[in-house]
Amino acid sequence: MTTLVGGIEAGGTKFVCVVGTGPEDIRAQVRIPTTTPEATLGEALAFFQQQSRHVGPLAALGIASFGPLDLHPSSPSYGFITSTAKPGWRNVDLAGPFRRALGVPVSIDTDVNGAALGEGRWGAARGLGTFVYLTVGTGIGGGGVINHQMMHGLIHPEMGHIWLPRSPKEEPSFQGVCPYHGGCFEGLASGPALHRRWGGQAEALPENHPAWELEAHYISLALANFIATLSPQRIILGGGVMAQRHLYPLVRDEVRRLLNGYIQSADILERMDAYIVPPALEGLSGAAGALALAQTRVLKDMPVLEKTG
Amino acid sequence: MTTLVGGIEAGGTKFVCVVGTGPEDIRAQVRIPTTTPEATLGEALAFFQQQSRHVGPLAALGIASFGPLDLHPSSPSYGFITSTAKPGWRNVDLAGPFRRALGVPVSIDTDVNGAALGEGRWGAARGLGTFVYLTVGTGIGGGGVINHQMMHGLIHPEMGHIWLPRSPKEEPSFQGVCPYHGGCFEGLASGPALHRRWGGQAEALPENHPAWELEAHYISLALANFIATLSPQRIILGGGVMAQRHLYPLVRDEVRRLLNGYIQSADILERMDAYIVPPALEGLSGAAGALALAQTRVLKDMPVLEKTG
Ligand SMILES: Nc1ncnc2c1ncn2[C@@H]1O[C@H](COP(=O)(O)OP(=O)(O)O)[C@@H](O)[C@H]1O
Ligand SMILES: Nc1ncnc2c1ncn2[C@@H]1O[C@H](COP(=O)(O)OP(=O)(O)O)[C@@H](O)[C@H]1O
Ligand SMILES: [Zn+2]
Ligand SMILES: [Zn+2]
């Protein structure tokens, strides 16, 4: 696949726009802060228009975006952001402006489905048919691939918003930060939840701070639920909060403790280090996934992922 | 599809064995109590041997069984029950005895994946590509179809064993009944959990007993989690406990309350009555699913479900 395509990882903080054929062949890249839809989409568009003139026409554009999104091709608001809590971005048409101005097919999916696709094609889930990509950052989101196909269904997964038991170590007065659910997974364990609970940036909490054991516990409860619900062959765990590398062994031990031997699989019982892993395309999972999304539009009949395993 | 096949719904209480071509064409049926593997499997085998002589040879056999099961075709314990809590049934070969004695291909899956398949082909999920079948009975189990394919992955879903927040109305001393996890979903909301918590058979609790509001709350928390994780187009809710029909409206209202408008879909916001539904093949979902499993072995290349929607 050498056709040049464009990709956008549309995040709540920044838009990463790339032109290339894959994560090892990125010809141009720009980071645009997420401000208003007009300003941010305008800058992104200008980048792709300029690139089309410089490096040649793009065959398609892929967008891996924060959401929730309308992903029903037949819907009048296909490609729109819908019920987001991010001010100014509700009911914003993401795909339309690019399709109209660039005149190329545009493929859109959630940021996490995109990242899963990128990791499946080039990263930590190569060869697997069923896996989950979870990001723990400003928000918590999960996407995935089941039997070599992207998860969509009614809309798309919103894995950050599952209900979890509160830890007995949790301050009873802490309500969680999700504007929709208070103490859902995102409400209890996102970066802003850490900030609200402990009163400082998560980045600044030392490694021996009790914050991390509690954080690992909540992430592990969620992963145990995803394992029981989806039976993934691997879980890729990324996002800003996971920059705390010491969380990985804590999470692996806690997931095993919570499952308590019920899921009889050597991947969980014996090879947990290879079961819950960081992204391999560190920082580029989403942008690479956006390129992969674009490529699925160039080769319409291409399976989402090759069946190598 | 008129080829005669056999089907077994293997449950913890009884085995339902059928011969036919679908739920409207069952030629013979027998119910065998689940006692020891030797006795129960022996009786089931005798039934199919006798039927083969009477109504003609079977083209294949499908088994929809309680589990967990080993469903990896390449595993030495393929078709075995693995870590079940049911005494005497751990590490029991279910598929092998039938394959050897009947000399037909045997297709095995979980009881709930089987029920999902049956409801997808002939029942309440006809035409849908992505849906969940959940049973609330002696155990709680969920299975499903994603993008027209059965859910397997690492092993198969075990949706009864997700972690949920305890209700503030729950007696703090109640530990739940799951031998692996105590107060997981099954530990809090299965028939035996109702029995343990309220001290009588669930069947005997009157409709205005506080048991049902709490039960509906736990089921709704779980369904909200499955919606956030899988984004199903419909949820089929069956099992002995759901014989309490008044639970359906309680669950629908509570799921909507818990999601709190976050999932922007008319199916949830406006058409909840058609979103969370009882099985259409009442009592036969699993046995019909077992027939459908057998049929997938006759027509090897047949898609699991036809893509009508
Ligand atoms: N080194 C770190 N340790 C802990 N938390 C971090 C770290 N770096 C970033 N975060 C937290 O992660 C969140 C940002 O997540 P990130 O995945 O980078 O972006 P976003 O979710 O906005 O796309 C912030 O809440 C921030 O506090
Ligand atoms: N009418 C009813 N009301 C409430 N609970 C019921 C009713 N009928 C059966 N149950 C409960 O459902 C469980 C049996 O579930 P069922 O789905 O019939 O079988 P199994 O799960 O063993 O395959 C028992 O715990 C029983 O108490
Ligand atoms: Zn939430
Ligand atoms: Zn359990």
UniProtKB/TrEMBL annotation, chains A, B:
Keyword Nucleotide-binding tagged: yes
Residues that span the membrane, as ranges: none
Record organism: Stigmatella aurantiaca (strain DW4/3-1)
Protein's UniProt name: fructokinase
Recorded superkingdom: Bacteria
Named cofactor requirement(s): Mg(2+)
Pfam family, one: ROK
Protein keywords: ATP-binding, Carbohydrate metabolism, Kinase, Magnesium, Metal-binding, Nucleotide-binding, Transferase, Zinc
Family from the record: Belongs to the ROK (NagC/XylR) family.
